[in-house]
């Protein structure tokens, strides 16, 4: 089968599109014929050796996918051939034509759900859901600020924030991106390339500050948000797409009485699988009701994985990207 191979931690263009042996279904495993694979910011970090974890080399990158069950190992009988599923790997393996995995990591999907949607649901919407529900404990009527609100996880946070009853403020760097955030439910818009973020937040909250901040960006925007929190607020640290990991003046958390909360969705899925399963049920319900939807910027053939990852790393994506084997 064809797959993307990372032979060493190196620039994205060093990834290889090549032939590798087909996966073998071990006891209890199933083989999935991958129809689409989601492309995420951590995938780009991982292959460059910049992520929190470093898998043994060589490896096939990619963590989320959608496809069809085509083979079962011994004891794996509850997902028959032809079952349409979405799945989450252990961080690697999805940028390929096939993958072997534990069926307990798979979620059957309805026939009406496109594989492109299914491949992009887990990481972005899963992260935003866990962040806002378990980590941020967002309540109906609270104010939610979403930074990077036109990216995959930013759009997810806007949609889920609205589904949870919050007033959503979207912050983006261009009017085009803000229009996308608006289309996905944002109540208020801030173009922080033209308007001072601190002043805009003060005006929109009547000086109270923001109850919950969803920050996948880091950098200067984090610094502003750390000074714009409401009392009992929760500043959610999702990632650092800006490339800059900010430093927190810890005295602000004392004086303003707010919390800074880390969100590591991959760890959550491993340590709290039952809660993760409940989250997935709720997300699938919201999807079927039209409360959330997947925004796919573009599709790339598997052979152009390096270009897709570069587009994500350059923050040139509105929504999500998907690879088609």
Number of domains: 2
End-to-end Cα distance: 10 Å
User: How large is the count of helical segments?
Assistant: 10
Largest sheet: 7 strands, mixed
Strand tally: 15
CATH topology of the largest domain: Rossmann fold
Order of helices and strands: EEEHEEEEHEHEHEHEHEHEHHEHE
Helix share bin: 25-40%
The rounded Rg comes to 20 Å
Give me the secondary-structure category.
alpha/beta
How much is the average pLDDT? 94
* Assigned CATH superfamily of the largest domain: NAD(P)-binding Rossmann-like Domain
Overall geometry: globular
What is the CATH C-level name of the largest domain?
A: Alpha Beta
Query: Uncertain segments of ≥5 residues (pLDDT<50)?
Result: none
What is the CATH architecture assignment of the largest domain? 3-Layer(aba) Sandwich
Organism: Sinobacterium norvegicum
Keywords: Oxidoreductase
Enzyme class: oxidoreductase
GO molecular function: quinone reductase (NADPH) activity
Overview of this structure, please?
The protein has 2 domains: 2-109 and 295-324, Alpha-Beta Complex (Quinone Oxidoreductase, Chain A, domain 1); 123-266, 3-Layer(aba) Sandwich (Rossmann fold). It is built from 10 helices and 15 strands. The strands form 3 sheets. Strands 3, 4, 5, 6, 7, 14 and 15 form a 7-stranded mixed sheet that branches. The protein has 325 residues and is α/β, with parallel strands linked by helices. It has helices spanning 41-47, 115-135, 152-163, 175-183, 197-204, 219-225, 251-256, 265-271, 273-289, 305-313; strands at residues 2-5, 16-19, 30-39, 64-72, 84-88, 98-101, 106-108, 143-147, 167-172, 188-191, 210-215, 229-237, 259-262, 296-301, 320-324. Helix 4 (175-183) links the parallel strand 9 (167-172) and strand 10 (188-191). Its EC number is 1.6.5.5. Residues 10-323 form the Enoyl reductase (ER) domain. Keywords: Oxidoreductase. InterPro entries: ADH-like_C (IPR013149), ADH-like_N (IPR013154), ER (IPR020843), GroES-like_sf (IPR011032), NAD(P)-bd_dom_sf (IPR036291), Quin_OxRdtase/zeta-crystal_CS (IPR002364), Zn-ADH-like_protein (IPR051397). This is Quinone oxidoreductase 1.
């Amino acid at each position: 089968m064809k797959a993307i191979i990372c032979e060493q931690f190196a620039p994205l263009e060093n990834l290889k599109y090549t032939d590798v042996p087909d996966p073998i279904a071990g006891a209890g495993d199933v083989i999935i014929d991958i129809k689409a694979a989601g492309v995420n910011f951590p995938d780009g970090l991982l292959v460059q050796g910049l992520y929190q974890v470093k898998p043994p080399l060589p490896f096939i990158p990619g963590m989320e996918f959608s496809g069809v069950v085509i083979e079962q190992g011994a004891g794996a009988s509850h997902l028959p051939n032809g079952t349409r599923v979405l799945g989450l790997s252990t961080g690697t393996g999805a940028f390929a034509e096939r993958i072997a995995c534990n069926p307990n990591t798979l979620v059957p999907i309805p026939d009406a759900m496109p594989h492109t949607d299914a491949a992009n649901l887990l990481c972005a919407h899963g992260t935003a859901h866990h962040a806002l529900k378990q980590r941020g404990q967002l309540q109906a009527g609270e104010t939610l600020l979403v930074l990077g609100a036109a990216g995959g996880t930013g759009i997810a946070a806007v949609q889920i924030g609205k589904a949870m009853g919050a007033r959503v403020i979207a912050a983006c760097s261009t009017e085009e991106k803000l229009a996308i955030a608006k289309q996905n439910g944002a109540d208020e818009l801030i173009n922080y390339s033209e308007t001072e973020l601190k002043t805009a937040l003060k005006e929109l909250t009547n000086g109270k500050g923001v109850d919950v901040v969803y920050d996948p960006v880091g950098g200067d925007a984090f610094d502003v948000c750390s000074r714009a929190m409401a009392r009992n607020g929760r500043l959610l640290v999702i990632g650092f797409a800006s490339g800059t990991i900010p430093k927190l003046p810890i005295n602000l958390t004392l004086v303003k009485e707010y919390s800074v909360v880390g969100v590591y969705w991959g760890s959550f899925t491993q340590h709290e699988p039952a809660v993760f399963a409940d989250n997935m049920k709720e997300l699938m319900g919201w999807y079927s009701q039209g409360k959330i939807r997947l925004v796919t910027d573009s599709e790339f053939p598997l052979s152009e994985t390096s270009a897709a990852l570069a587009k994500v790393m350059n923050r040139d994506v509105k929504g999500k990207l998907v690879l088609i084997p």
